[in-house]
Hints:
The protein is of the alpha/beta class.
Amino acid sequence: MRDVFPDRFPMSxxxxxxxxxxxxxxxxxxxxxxxxxxxADVAASAGSPAADALGVKPPHFPxxxxxxxxxxxxxxxxxxxxxxxxxxxxxxxxxxxPQNLTTERKTGAAFPSPFKxxxxxxxxxxxxxxxxxxxxxxxxxxxxxxxxAQVPNHEPSLMLMNCGDSVLPRPxxxxxxxxxxxxxxxNLPGFVAMCPSGFPVKDAENWGSAFLxxxxxxxxxxxxxxxxxxxxxxIRSPHASQVTQRRQLDLLRTLNAxxxxxxxxxxxxxxxxxxxxxxxxQMEAADAFDVKRxxxxxxxxxxxxxxxxxTLIARRLLERGVRYVQLWHGAGQPWDNHAQIESNHRxxxxxxxxxxxxxxxxxxxxxxxxxxxxLWGGEFGRTPTVELGGNGESQLGRDHNHxxxxxxxxxxGVKGGTVHxxxxxxxxxxxxxxxxxxxxxxxxxxxxxxDHERLTYxxxxxDFRLTDVHGQVIRPVVA
Length: 479
């Protein structure tokens, strides 16, 4: 039978539907698979459809920012202990606050911040002693004190802040940025996520690409290691030379290209690209991730710690063309301080205050701050009331609070020395100019040169975007 109908073998499921009487089924299937066909349309004739997916692409309009670095304080830092001072908490110390907001766990009386605030810079913005080194740069920072999330739970709030949806799997912000701009260096991942000692809650979903092509997902690096072979697993082959690897990849590309003509599949394209990226990284990653190549004074400025090292690595990646770097504080949710918040927040802040300040100084000295967008914050904030244990006694910590919390932005087109929005007198709920996560994402894209309503990707018959059907640019924080 193969001799009689040679052109019909091998036959894909799609071909079977199209060539059978089940034309109606093929029509339905074509809508479901439209995103695959659209992706395949950009194929180069002699290679993978992802061949140009990483190429530099122009934004909708000239953006002030070209790259992003995001300090993610996973677990949720307390706004009233960092960038949103609330003197009223001292007045109500040990007393119930006149608020009736539901919290995830039982909380009690007002819990004044144990940290001192003072004004910094020409703008006179008040910042806690926890971030006194970062505060020296407050005139370059826009503090958003009226952020709101949807629920007081880590998993959905992490997905909302990182991917724009708290329920369904969606591409991460970094993946959208890669999709929109491409990368300026094909020898390094365009999107890198670093988290010391392991994964945060929700693991790689935080930097995934979901229905976007797999080439846009983040590459995970554990910066607790100092040797490049441990920083990036399997960066070198123990069995084959680079010449041999190149021959193997060329053969594999030829076979995959032939297969692709009959069975276009974005997953295959992503795998091909991952092989190619791994091969190219052998030539440049060792240099980019080796902070010993930095002058001693620069290393000392960042600090000889894991957070100092990962922040310095991030700067080295950004100046080499990497688009998006996300710096997580550590595995799990270190900032989730339900108890003993004074000692815990003090320790955690001390680990990143110097590296953040060093980065802002370094970027400014190199002329990079003006086109690098720096972000800081967690998935939500914390309550101004003290959390109570099962026995009803104070834990000297704070519960989750999604009603109102703080994030900040700097560099890349941001209007520094600005405070936007406000929470109530106790720091419980956003009451002035509330900012949703969709607004935050719309502003990030705007600073990069994108109209968030136009940066879309067709999947399953619908045009998706990072901000879904929501979001307004936060104009007062844009220079």
